[in-house]
Design goal:
Elements lengths: L2 E5 L11 H6 L1 H14 L3 H7 L2 H4 L2 H22 L6 E4 L3 H8 L5 H19 L4 E7 L3 H11 L6 E8 L2 E7 H15 L2 E5 L11 H11 L11 E2 L6 E2 L2 H13 L4 H7 L5 E5 L6 H7 L4 E5 L2 H20 L1
Parallel strand pairs: 1-2, 1-9, 9-10
Antiparallel strand pairs: 3-5, 3-6, 4-5, 7-8
């Protein structure tokens, strides 16, 4: 059985995420304690007893989502012996995946996400930008609309290719508004505004890339033990230096999520490593006959263990 593990990005966070596992798992408790000491943030209070607004702040959400994903992943590996055959991540989940691949350690990844999110917040203070999701229009058409309304000074781009007919457009607010209006008027598109917290995935992010690059020069990226599937170029990476380059590229490049899911067509089970179940819908739509699980609590872990154990027994019998 070939296992693909996927890590969600911004928007998957919710107050109370991971509470059951925190109460029951010493591994999770140690991760929360380590993260709190590293960043001087009370992650127990933030994740379990704050508000949706507080948790949704960029530096809080980025680091909390990573913390929970890393903790669940370690529980699966150390307590249950479940090792994936490939890892990838949606949006900032890519950084959790790089950690899970064995390239970037927990503390370095946590610091990187915290520092980059704080710098991103500072960058946003000086920009008039927006993000909108466009559904019901093919990606090629949306890209053409972005090109049509963009100028040298103001532009919009397809920041995320979610599905074949669902994209996330980001850029200068005036241009994004024109693209959204055209998509509605000419193609009867459905649209939904998103917070800029999801990232702009364009050249607008260059100052953040430059900042993160300086930090990453001091960070050791090991060669990965598990293949990491890039969502920028859609190929697997294991070399440490290539993973370092991909981490930077990920910040300012369009994310080809739909193409990455296509790449995983040979895998038997898709495991979303919490929080929440935000990735399930797209995966199930693309692979209705495959097993798709989201891991958020011990019951989810037990279900995954049962599936893997049953598959191993069947393989031995065959």
């Amino acid at each position: 059985m070939k296992i693909a593990m996927l890590f969600p990005g911004y928007g998957s966070q919710f107050v109370g995420m991971g509470k059951e596992l925190y109460d029951e798992s010493r591994i999770m408790q140690e991760y929360f304690e380590q993260a709190s000491n590293c960043l001087d943030i009370n992650f127990v209070k933030l994740c379990f007893a704050s508000s949706d607004l507080e948790l949704a702040k960029i530096n809080h959400a980025y680091t909390s989502i990573f913390l929970l994903g890393a903790g669940i992943y370690k529980i699966l590996r150390e307590d249950e012996g479940i090792v994936p055959d490939i890892v990838t991540g949606y949006n900032i989940g890519a950084f959790t995946a790089i950690h899970a691949a064995g390239s970037l350690n927990f503390v370095d990844c946590l610091y990187m996400l915290n520092k980059s999110s704080i710098f991103y917040e500072e960058l946003l203070a000086g920009l008039d930008v927006s993000v909108v999701e466009i559904k019901g229009v093919d990606a090629k058409t949306v890209k053409e609309l972005c090109d049509q309304y963009s100028t040298n000074d103001s532009f919009a781009v397809v920041g995320v290719y979610v599905t074949a007919d669902e994209t996330i457009v980001a850029g200068h607010a005036s241009v994004v508004e024109q693209v959204e209006a055209a998509a509605k008027e000419s193609y009867d598109a459905k649209t939904e505004s998103h917070g800029v917290e999801v990232g702009l995935h364009s050249s607008l992010m260059k100052p953040v890339v430059d900042f993160v690059k300086l930090y990453l020069e001091k960070v050791d990226f090991q060669d990965a033990a598990i293949p990491f599937l890039s969502t920028t170029e859609v190929h697997t990476i294991k070399a440490g230096q290539s993973l370092r380059a991909n981490a930077l590229e990920h910040v300012s490049s369009p994310l080809k999520w739909h193409q990455a899911l296509d790449y995983l067509h040979d895998y038997d089970i898709f495991v979303e490593i919490g929080p929440g179940t935000t990735l399930q819908e797209n995966i199930k739509a693309l692979y209705p006959d495959k097993q798709v699980l989201s891991i958020n609590n011990q019951k989810d872990i037990d279900q995954l263990v049962q599936i893997v154990t049953t598959a191993e027994v069947k393989t031995e019998e065959d």
